[in-house]
Design goal:
The protein is an alpha/beta fold. Helices cover 41% and strands 14% of the residues. A five-stranded mixed β-sheet has the order 4-3-5-7-6. Helix 6 links the parallel strand 3 and strand 4. The radius of gyration is 24 Å and the shape is elongated.
Amino acid sequence: MLYFLWERLGKAATISIMLVLLFTNLLHIAPYAVPFYIGVNLPAFSWKYPKGKVTKVIVWKSGDHLNPISYVDEFMYEITHDYDGPLEGICKYINQHAGPDDMVKIFYDNYAPIFYTNRLVLPKKEFEGPILPDWWIFRGRDWQYRLGQPNLEDVYRPILEREYEKITIDYPEIQWENMPEPAYHKFRTVKDAPRVIIYHRKKTYPVLSLEEKLGMIKGIWDKNLN
């Protein structure tokens, strides 16, 4: 590409074009801006989940987010400042406050607690019988927004009020920790979002070891398989 431009446009034009591509978002918005300005209306994207239920997700639509922006100052801020996301806060809190035999249940983005804590993290769908997790994390209203389901905190409100204490930690409750997607990426810690909420069971399992808890879960799995 550089050789092609250099041969046909010359040194000054090539350098100017490369600076525009490197230090602005023009390359990213071009596929959407060009159709818009020539009068072509691009449709919004949609995806199906679950079981054929359509949830519309407008990623780009003609005329939206078409202003050229330079991110150089944002990149400089990002690499020189700490970024705090919800999963970092959850893992730090669990590592500091959860007992070695505690069970943790998180309904969304459970991979980070699995790999960044050494606690037992229950599978998303595991909630039956006598098993109440020591720590319960619902991740805001993501379940409700993405899957069209009731807010899980409202569903389990009686249990939460009876069995758990509500703990708010100073980390933003946003959908993802961060993503390399220009339409979502956060260069700075989000300050205007709700804070992450973690529920801690008031009554622990003082007589149950981790092995016994795993046995309880295995019993439920065996029952479901049979």
